[in-house]
Amino acid sequence: MRKNIVAGNWKMNKTLSEGIALAKEVNAAVAGKSLKCDVVLGTPFIHLASVCSAIDTTKTGVSAQNCADKVSGAYTGEVSAAMIASTGAKYVILGHSERRAYYGETDAILKEKVKLALDNGLTPIFCIGEVLSEREAGKHFDVVRSQLENALFDFSAADFGKLVLAYEPVWAIGTGKTATPGQAQEMHAFIRKTIAGKYNAETAGNCSILYGGSCNPSNAAQLFSNPDVDGGLIGGASLNADDFMQIITAF
Ligand code: PEP
Fold it and tell me: How far is the CA of 235 from the centre of ligand 1 (A)?
């Protein structure tokens, strides 16, 4: 079912003790509040097990930021979806533009990762979005449609229904340049329409589509007030509990 979600993406930040402290701070701040969204913390791999033990994961979900495209075996340095699930984490961010740009993750690789995440009961938070030159060339809808088609549209409607999507215009990530609420709504509506065209209106209506890209305490409420924006994937502003809480309570 469609839910509002605010998910933090800590990226490669925070030592283990700093990460546990931040997770506890967020968890304490959400405890006892009746929130209009689910809250997720996307931590580095090595934090997952400790963060899951340190907090109430029924109040604050925990996410990895990547998983391997292989089940297990001789893949030095990789972390499998099964390993992530064994820590108590319930989510995995996949297809982030930094993974696509710096680590060569293609739609074909991402399709394998999504499959393995689903096989292991994880909810993928799947990122899509165009770079600036693509938007300036008027190709942003085509880019996003092709990311959906190539990575996700081979899944059944039942499996697609287990995914969370995050529209993250790459030009807005970490740049302080946020998409306007109008630009976000326009793309989210397009994504929903594209899902309805491939599957059906029910699958499209049930899909949570988050916005990501320089979302912060001062613009979150406006972005989240759009009918097709179901929350946010938050990078920089998730590293500070007060800022993150202001975004969570922006609903
Ligand atoms: C992100 O990394 O997914 C992100 C949206 O980062 P930021 O909020 O810092 O732009």
Answer: 3
Which residue type is seen at 230?
Answer: D
Terminal Cα-to-Cα distance of the chain (whole angstroms): 18
Instruction: Give the number of other CB atoms < 10 A from CB of residue 227.
Output: 9
Does this model's pTM top 0.90?
yes
> Which among 12, 214, 244, 248 is the best mutation to test ligand 1's pocket, defined by most ligand atoms within 8 Å of the CB?
214
Q: How many CB atoms lie within 10 A of CB 176?
A: 9
User: Dihedrals φ, ψ of 104, to 5°?
Assistant: 65, 30
Look up 18 and say whether it is catalytic: no
d(CA 42, CA 185): 24
- Residue 125 Cα to ligand 1 middle (Å): 13
Sign of the four-CA dihedral 27, 96, 230, 121: negative
Using alpha carbons only, give the angle 248, 249, 251 rounded to the nearest 5 degrees.
95
Q: What is the pLDDT of residues 123-180, one digit of tens each?
A: 999 999 999 999 999 999 999 999 999 999 999 999 999 999 999 999 999 998 899 9
Compute the distance from residue 216 Cα to the ligand 1 centre, in Å: 10
Pocket probe for ligand 1: among 168, 219, 238, 244, the residue whose CB has the most ligand atoms within 8 Å is 168
Give catalytic status of residue 140 as yes or no: no
Q: Could you tell me the CA-to-CA distances from 97 to 50, 188, 212 in Å, in that order? A: 27, 17, 11
